[in-house]
Amino acid sequence: YESVERLRLAATTAFLASLLSSPGKWVKDPNVTQCNFRDQIDQANPSLILIGNSYLTENISPRVLDRILRKALGRDFRTLVLAEGGATSAWWYLVMKNHVAKSRAQGIPIGIFFCGYDLTRMNRVLNARHLTLINKLLEDEEEVFFRKTRNTSLRPPRGASRRLDRAEFNEYALGQWVNFCYLWELKRFNPTVILRARFQLAQQRIPRAVAAVEPETGDDDFCRNLTACVDDTFLPDIIREGHDVGLFVVEIHRRPGTPFDDAWYAYRDQLRRYLADQRVGYISLQDHPELDVESLYGLTDHLNPTGEIINTQLFAEDLHRSGILRRESR
Hints:
Structural class: alpha/beta
Helix content: 40-55%
């Protein structure tokens, strides 16, 4: 076991050294398994694609959804879910750009599930876990991603002096190195904690790109006023990449007792108007009082199995009634 660890350490150290010796050049980390949603889409030949995070995977049952819609539409129906726990707008954008838009999914309705301000939230782009997810989706120079995560009028997250550029993202390969060698630890600790414990590195020797994404940023780094800052978010880019498909968004239902202030309602109204102007469909599960039942929920806004079935039924009805499925060309 120790010999295997030494081999891993030697291989990844060599990669890291070569990477950091050319700070201005982007080099794909060989230890990162890239996502290949394109093949998954083309092989599945879906009737509907849903994109999101655990608020999708924990709250919607594709099996139940397909059964309801097969009966309602009188034909075969297959839903494909593309989701990653914790993923937000940057991940959704890269999935749309590098996978959905390059697949044979043209004309298929694409739904993005979101919670709260996530469609225009930028802070979680910089969190260590989310950068790990994003690294699996990068394919080219990704000008939009790196421009928007560094040059933005949005307030920088707490603990980060500025955004990351492409060269600094290369340095984040150190986090991938840790991920490769000590995956089980990365799930429990952030990269700095692991590096200090394993290699006794001083704070000043930890690459600034790793330090910049820690700790988890707060919830205050999002676009509240769409008129002023929506172009600084990934929402317009998601819409642009979804131009040739039937793009729509789905607002999840929050757990009963979740506080909603006037700013939230104002934001929600702005978001609806903006999406309508962009001809993007909007389904709100938040508007269903049937989900205002505490016993339907597990952790946070995640539903338990009973709640998942009820939520899926309501979503199927909303989706069928909306006319969105008429856009399907297959």
